[in-house]
């Protein structure tokens, strides 16, 4: 089996199983769940900055998805794509993680590739992408025997058709699935050429309580089309298509409500005039 090498281990997250596990154990103490949250969640939205900045939020979302009967496949939607971009998928092989190889759900991938026009990647030929790779050590750690299907999706209507088809085909194949959408929120400041409220405390407040809040509200309403519209209109999500796909698939799986696990910004750990918002959500 061909293995797609990890490009961000040792920099954006640790490159050994022992170091990753120490990080994960620390992350789980930051956002402990309470008794009211002891339910089964079928989908979630996670951020994808380096683990120092947002790994704790992503870890706690994926940990909550591991409750209940283990899925056969974990589907991760991500990638930085434009509305006109072609969706992207690796249909064979496996992903390298510090905890071991994470095999692709090839039967589900092949069926999707027959239905939609994807740009097909291979373990040897691919575009380096943090949005998906940074989630895979968590997936392998919490879902030891599950396979993965990673799909790059643009903020476009076809993405919702792909999300619905993922669930439909998985059911036809007899697979239990969990779904994850990977996106950060507002990228604010000179580093990102986006600073409509200047700098300082006023800018941070606007990002946290207005711009990011609009996108979180769309996630909470579980409205996939509005999630895409909001991200494109207000620059408050870098991968709105991925978030919308996770919500659409979660709804198809029966999810009826959203719960926020955590919200933070990179400013919390590295104060400055350029910063990024992060949210973790689960759907059940």
TrEMBL record:
Transmembrane segments: none annotated. InterPro entries: MEMO1_fam. Gene3D superfamilies: LigB-like. It holds the Pfam family Memo. NCBIfam families: AmmeMemoSam_B. This is AmmeMemoRadiSam system protein B. Belongs to the MEMO1 family.
